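hey so i finally got around to running the thing on that chain from the lab meeting. sorry it took forever, my laptop kept dying and i had to restart like 3 times. anyway pasting the input first so we r on the same page abt which one it is
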Amino acid sequence: MVKNWFSIGGLLVGLIESLISITVCYDFIFGESFKGLDFLLSLMIMLPALFALITSFVPAPLILISFIWSLPLSFYLWIASDVKWFAITCLTYLLSSYLKFHGTKNSIH
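ok and heres what got predicted. didnt touch it at all, straight out
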């Protein structure tokens, strides 16, 4: 029986979001959408997604680092090019870190 549903929810949201972010980033890097931004997309979107994929299994809310890391470029791409996928994936990092933080707080008490 699972004792902490918030941690499990944070894990699932982090895993799903990381896979979606990697898929979307792969499509934009090798597609025709953003020519010349390959390095930035890899550095600011793909690496935080891989980091979030790894930190999804850690009980502490380290996935918040991925949110902070990918926020500037995600916000810029959302405002400049009206691509909402990067903003959605960035916000799910925040949701996952909230669920994980809430789960670790409940396991302490």
